[in-house]
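pasting Structural maintenance of chromosomes protein 5 for the record, 873 residues
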Amino acid sequence: MIQDQSQNQSNLNDSLSTTLTQSTSHKHSHGAIVRIRLENFMTYKEVELYPGPRLNVIIGPNGSGKSSIVCAICLGLAGHPRVIGRAGNIGDYIKTGNEKGMIEIELNNAERGSNWIVNRTLHTHSASKWTLNGKSTTETAIKDLMKNLHIQVDNLCQFLPQEKVAEFTNMSKCDLLENTEKCVGGEELYSLHKSLKTLGQETRTLEVDLSEALNQAATCKQVLKHLEPDVQAIQGRKDLEAKIGEYTKCKYFRDYEEKINDHENVTKAFDAVKKKVEEVNHRLKPMQDQIKKSKVELEKTQTSFKAKYKESVDLKNKLNKDINAISEQSDDLIEKIRDELHHKKDEEKRRIESCKDVEQQINALEEQFDSMDVNSQDQEDLQAEWNKLEEERKRISEQQAQLSNKHQQVIDEVRRIQQDIQIKQRELDHINNVQETRLVNLQHQNPDAWKAVKWLRQNKMLFRKTVYEPMILSLNVNEPNMTKYVEFVIPKRDLLAMFIFEDTDDMELFIKECHEKQKLVVHGSAIPVMSLEEFRREATPIDNLKKYGMFQYVIDAVQGPDAILRYLCQTTKIHTLPIANDLSMTKMDDITKDEKIRRFFVKNFCYSLSISYYTKEPSTTNVHVQKEKYLTDSVSHDRKQKLEQEHQQMKDRCNELQKSQQVYEKEQDGLSRHLDDVKARKIAITDKRNMKAKLERKIEEKKHTLNMYKKKQIDIEKEEKIAHEKEMKIHEDKMHKLNAQVKELENFNKKCNLMIIDSGRVALARQQNLQAVGKLEIYNDELTQLKEKTINSKKRLEMSEASTRLAAQKVAKSLDKNLPPDNIVLPNKMIQELRTKFADFPKNLADLESEIMNFNAQLSCQGNIKDDVRDKN
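structre below
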């Protein structure tokens, strides 16, 4: 229902404005603004303006809303927020405390009679809605309408916001002219001007090209006139070069004739040597066949002899091996029998000695047994002493158990404290890592300040008092959502590059080092005289402002050294700058009436309050607070100090417990030694009580051992007789096997005699073969010499062919004719033509060379012709 009523009211206003503007439209130009209506736009809740057809001037004090009307014209005519140079978000132009705003602009239509009414509804979190004459449309359609009406809000010559004045004054004359043309004549005039500039540039380029072409033509005519004598000289030179060419061709032909004659002679000599080689090979063939045959027979005989010889050697080695094996086997068996006998003798000797030793031990034990006489009184005394030691052992064991429990409790507590120390250490490491992260961020944001911090940390001994590093390294914010307010208040220069000094001499030393020596751009300041408490007393108590939704000052949200907070109170007034919640938006009227509040933060905005000098009316402006960037990882100094104290207390407690642990360990060692002594004394008493029984058992054991030794007695005479019989049997077997080997040796000697006869035959055949080979080598030497002559003749023939082929190719090339690469003889027709052509030329190569040299000398006397003259000719 409310929406229908607002729509009807809007339609009624549109009708009234249309009627009013129709009566006055004849005074306005086409596309001029005849009405502006704003709702919830910036400082205006609702306003409606009717500009005149001529010059319109809006006057008023600062903050009265003059710039708001300019912003409304730009945004209402489809202009981009960056044209205004203020906030980039459309929602920032809506009046504070409202979700939407409206801009309505009526433009004169001198052609069709009905004006254009452009309406733009602004929303905080969504896109704008456009209507044209009450109908929904798009921003693109509105931009097309503005283009047709030649309305250019992005042209500084037509629409100049106060934030763009500096940009307008920096425009060149050409830019001013072009933008003025766009305003006055539209795109058509600007396009014509642009085409005119292009055509003028092309005309100037063509004129320059024409002038250069005319100058070049005149220069060429003068050059041709000076070149006529050189052209005549070139003609005479060409005649001499032609003669030289003809004589050179003749020289090549005469050289070819000599080469072809030499080639024929070399070919004849090569054929003669080749024929003689064939004759020698014919004589050598029968002899080579005979030697080859005898060589084959000799090889067969040698192979047979070698086989028999190898067989005899193998047989000899086998016989020797068998004889040695028989002897070694017999000797090994005899040695084994003798070792067994010797071992039995040693064993019997050891048995006798062991029996004597055991008998002596038995006698000694019996004497010791007889000497022992323990009465009943001694037994009772030993038992009483043993009982006393047992009670002492139990008492010490109980003390050990109690001490062990206490020791274990100390160990457990030490382990727990060490775990807590590690947890605290990790938290401290995290805090220190935050400082390192900020230092790296400072290096990226301001390298000069980072270098100054590094130098300061390395040279602290040069300063008498404390020097505070830049605030990015020194400040921490208690709550993350308050960080953006702290960064907004502090200038970037102070946050990144301001060093605070307690002593002015230290500041002079630091500034001199950084500015003059290292050329670093950093800043320094001394600590204010007022204390932090004095600054706080200047501010209104925060409890008095809670009724406006203000719950703390900026100084309450930040932690840092006292000196830096005093500097911020003096320069940025953080002790008087409150932070408010959503309640302040409903109390805005009351806040503007409170003269103690001039600036405060709420949500993402910083609100500033001012009183008009003329009307005494209050006004508010807001600036968007950017997202935090530098102090995002703040750490509480109180938390760090508390962690360090707890960490040190835990370390001290751990040291005390470790000392107690060492005391307990020493006490345990003492009890352990005492307990060991008691146990040893008990064992001694027990051994003394059981000594007689032990001696009886030992005597019985020794007697049993003596009986065992006596049962193992060995008969040495019997063993010697058995060993002698075994040796005699081994000797008989050895003699039997050796007789068999002797017979084998006799057969071997017979075979050796036959081999000696065969070896004589082989030696005779080898001697005959060597004589035949000697004769063959004589003939081979002769053949080798002939082959060398053949090779030399062939080389001379190849060289002759190459030189003749080269001479033939030169002749063919001089006549511009092709000759196959393998041909060394010119065609007969070509030879006849050349002989006829060069019949009157000298026959000797030397005469031809002399004539060519004369022609070259004449050519040299003419001098060199310029390259450019030769090319043009």
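The longest helix spans residues 228-371.
Residues 476-633 form one domain.
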